[in-house]
Amino acid sequence: MQIKELKSKDLQKEFEITIPSKDISQKLNNKLLEISQTSEVEGFRKGKVPINILKQKFGQNALGEILDDTIKSSSNELIRKNNLKLAMKPKVDVKKFGEDTGLEYVISLELIPEISVQDLKKIKLIKYVSLVHEDDLNKTLENIAKHQQTFQKKDNKRVEKGDAVLLNMKPTYENKLVKEAEINNKLTVIGNNMMLPDIEKKILNTKAGDKLNFITKFPKNFMNKNIAEKDVKIEIEILEVRVPKKKALNEEFAKSMGATNLEDFKKNLKDQMQKEIDNVSRTNLKKDLFDQLDKSYTVKLPNGMVDYEFENIWKKFLDGKKKGQIDPSDKNKKEEDLKKEYKTIAERRVKLGLVLAKIGEENKIVVNDDEVQKTIEEQISSQPDAKDKILSFYKNNSQALASLKAPIFEEKIIDYILSTIKIDKKEISKKELFKKQI
Which fold has domain 2-110? Predict the structure, then answer.
């Protein structure tokens, strides 16, 4: 094998690799002999087929396999001997290949940049924390009770906001039933935005036995595009009016929510609320850490990694746009400006990923099998019916397994950094803490 360096600029390297024809011919003969041991050719016993017959019958397929295997083994040897750390999958351009011509190809590589890890102890952070206060806990308890409320029928009651109405609704357009919006003997709570605002408005102040007949315009985002923005005839029959009956916060209520008693329910709820606050506190701390790392390091970024990250971000943006899910701050921006902003985000993500990976490497941080298994089990616990499918997916998909390890690896590195640096704590209100998320 001959190796000739064609290019070496920044993180880009390019090599020409040549494998002589005698090596390819030898590989082909060995491959054909291997095939002859298991293949049947009329007129010959297994293992006794002449090489020229084998070439006619299996030569092209064998050469295809040899090309793949030779490129893989020779490129791996090049990377190993030169101790190259790749940022992306190499690009290969085959110039010539055949039994008589040998193999000649050009391999283009993009490398991971050299990064010198700075003294982590120079990083100083403030961890903003907040505690669950009794008034917040009581408000949450009230909301839970409110949303667990039941309704009881009340005769001659006129509908108010918050009441539940049992009704039939027949929407028609051009004398055809709009099935997507039809309601038969179903309960709807007025004010919960379960129906179009105009329809809810018409139901207000009605009572059981009333019938409504009116025209309303359906919204632009209605699921049936043929009905969207069209004037639809609505016929409604009010069957019952029910008023809310708030659940009492007592032992019975606590047990209905899966707790042993009311105190146990309150404790579980408080712990859950504190966990949510602690997660926000950690997210804010991570953001501040990333900001400091971003400012502290100047890194020559691999273009391929930045482009790959940007394409993923941009695809997610376009998918959201199709569904009408756009960040309000992005709505009036030109595409050119948006792409520039998202490119900057992609560059930051790649940079931080490389810096964190280097810190992890230098401090021998690894993801073990138990940690991966725990993450898979967490996925299974949320989708128990898909257990076999999830296990098979990760077993047969090395790329998916790698993507599962990546966030575990990142969190372990972050934990290591946070355990090393000086962190001051400052208690603030929950409102202030959540504001820092934005």
Answer: Alpha-Beta Plaits (3.30.70)
DSSP string, 286-307: HHHHHHHHHHH------HHHHH
Q: What pTM was estimated for this model as a whole?
A: 0.73
Query: Hey, is 85 helix, strand or coil?
Result: coil
**Structure-token pair, residue 325:** 């899910």
Residue 143 has pLDDT above 90, yes or no: no
Q: What is the C-alpha separation between 225 and 236, in angstroms, rounded?
A: 23
DSSP string, 4-71: EEEEEETTEEEEEEEE-HHHHHHHHHHHHHHHHTT---TTS-TT---HHHHHHHHHHHHHHHHHHHHH
Give the model confidence (pLDDT) of 17-71 as tens digits.
999 999 999 999 888 888 777 776 666 666 666 777 778 778 788 899 999 999 9
CATH of 150-245, one of 3.50.50.60, 3.40.50.300, 3.40.367.20, 3.10.50.40: 3.10.50.40
- 260-435 CATH: 1.10.3120.10
